[in-house]
Amino acid sequence: MVVPVARPPIEDGVVCVASGRIAWVGPRAETPATLQHGEELDLGDVILLPGLVNAHCHLDYTGMAGQIAPPKSFTDWIKSMVSLKGSWSLGEFESSWQSGAAMLLRTGTTTVADIEAVPELIPAAWQRTPLRIHSFRELINVRSRVPAAEMVERAVNDWLSLPNTQNRVGLSPHAPYTTSTELLELAARAAHRRKWRLTTHIAESEQEYEMYMYRQGAMFEWLKSQRDVSECGAGSPIQHLERCGYLDENLLAVHVNYLWRHDAGVLGRNEVSVAHCPRSHDYFQHLRFPREELESAGVNICLGTDSLATARKERGFPLELNLFSEMQMFAGKSPNVAPETILRMATMNGAHALGLKGLIGELSEGACADMIVIPGPPSDGDAYDAILQHRGDVLASMIDGHWAIAPRSV
Ligand SMILES: [Zn+2]
Predict the structure, then answer these.
(1) What is the Rg, in whole angstroms, of the alpha carbon atoms belonging to the chain?
(2) What are 21-32's pLDDT values in tens digits?
(3) Ligand 1 centre and the CA of 24: distance in Å?
(4) Class of domain 13-49+363-405
(5) CA 360 / ligand 1 centre spacing (Å)
(6) Ramachandran region, residue 126 (left: φ > 0; alpha: ψ -120 to 50; beta: rest)
(7) What value does the mean pLDDT take over residues 243-254?
(8) Which fold has domain 52-353?
(9) Cα(377) to centroid of ligand 1, in Å?
């Protein structure tokens, strides 16, 4: 069963691959004669679907799994995280990054938007995984003495010195509360100039919302002596970013849990994409994710795993980065959303957010040959339901026309 996502499932389907790209997709009986001369591989009774696009991850925090218990408040979590990060060596971040990439690969992700808090790991880390990694350099300037212009320039120069950066690098000003207006503006300008994407955590917690909206709450109290807070008290985090001219189709906003009533419309008008991370949302016990509001405003919503520092262990399942688990958590909390829509969030919508529409996240002619194989649906079963219920590792994974995990028959 071929599930191209961009069109309905195809029983007894065929995907033709040539030079790393998909040359044709359709029912076996209709395979064009010109494409029948290649090597043929019968995968058996399986579902073949596009590799998943993980729209938000921190691979370098994978080894922090289970080390910070779900906190009472988001600000407490940030404080624990800052101290845990401070105690880690470069080697720990490095092995953490590698084990995270291995988890994503075996659980069906083929492209990941990763936040690089330790940019020294790149490009060596890229070379140790077949995954398509889109590396977003994290930028934080609360408490930093380095001027914003210098920080952005250094980040840009580091990325420019890397080999083959096309569709592989971007910038990630961390969040409004950890960045100055100047840093946001400079990062956006630098990204636009080089056609890089931006991604930022926005309105993740109630405390961030309170800080911007009302100049109060635990986050405001914690940060007021560490940074300029003159921008607070003048509307929501989204309104603040709109004033900075930061919202446009180049931006992938992460979390977006706490919205003022016109915020979804602002994001929709500015064509901002949103990455929702269901397990991280559950870990923090945030209020309801405003999916309906965002969807009505036409916002492109995709799914991400976030890091294992914000995942609860599920009884009977290993704590691992796994986009199937994110789809399952989302489905459990949004029973009225069709499985097909959820799969789109984990494939085509992520591709759109990364500026790679038509190239990844779908099995279509001209797209990169990135696909995964999972066990087939029961004879009377629905392919989308079977995908949503899939647990464990994938049977095979192809990236760019090469088997990253070969099927048993190869
Ligand atoms: Zn994050």
Answers:
(1) 21
(2) 999 999 999 999
(3) 37
(4) mainly beta
(5) 22
(6) alpha
(7) 96
(8) TIM Barrel (3.20.20)
(9) 34
